[in-house]
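Quick one, tokens below. Sequence please?
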């Protein structure tokens, strides 16, 4: 990069400051109610402001996508967020206003999202059976699947009859999932089996 060009560091790269400042300024719309700077360009499938730019490599340059809220943070605070999350106070993923951004770890970002009701921590579904938000079957169907499987019906055939994935049905008939559902005889199907004489 020529010496007369002011740069900023982002992801360990020295990038031209004026180019990115102008690019940001020309493509945002300010929401006067929230103060968000809404990006009017390309958004990722998750709704984050994003651009492609050429970055230097040992043999020339290559095209790379960057999330703009991370670049806005690096420009405003003159700090490379490498290795950290750039989180939104405003919870608007398309916002690139540096005043709405803060640095945090992945854990900080997850706690912030959970606190604001955007997601649940992994594995936290205290509800079982039909009360679970992702339940596909009822308890009678679970018992029927297990009964049919014990009678020799294959997991593939159960999939055709009940829908769902083979892996999910296999987890049901092997008591990995829906453990709380008892068989009609009162057991879980996990009782020891006596073989032999």
């Amino acid at each position: 990069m020529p010496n007369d060009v002011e740069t900023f560091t982002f992801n360990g790269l020295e990038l031209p400051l004026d180019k990115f400042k102008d690019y940001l300024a020309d493509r945002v719309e300010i929401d006067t109610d929230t103060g968000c700077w809404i990006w009017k360009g390309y958004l990722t499938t998750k709704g984050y402001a994003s651009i492609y730019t050429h970055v230097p490599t040992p043999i020339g340059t290559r095209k790379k996508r960057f999330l703009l809220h991370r670049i806005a943070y690096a420009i405003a605070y003159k700090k490379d967020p490498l290795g950290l999350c750039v989180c939104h106070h405003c919870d608007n993923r398309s916002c690139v206003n540096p005043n709405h951004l803060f640095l945090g770890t992945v854990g900080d970002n997850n706690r912030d999202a959970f606190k604001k009701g955007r997601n649940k921590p992994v594995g936290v579904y205290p509800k079982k059976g039909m009360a679970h938000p992702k339940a596909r079957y009822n308890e009678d169907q679970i018992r029927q699947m297990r009964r049919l499987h014990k009678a020799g019906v294959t997991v593939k055939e159960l999939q055709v009859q009940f829908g769902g994935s083979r892996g999910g049905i296999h987890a049901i008939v092997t008591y990995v999932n829906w453990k709380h559902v008892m068989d009609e005889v009162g057991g879980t199907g996990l009782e020891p089996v006596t073989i032999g004489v």
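The mean pLDDT is 81. The chain is about 30% helix and 20% strand.
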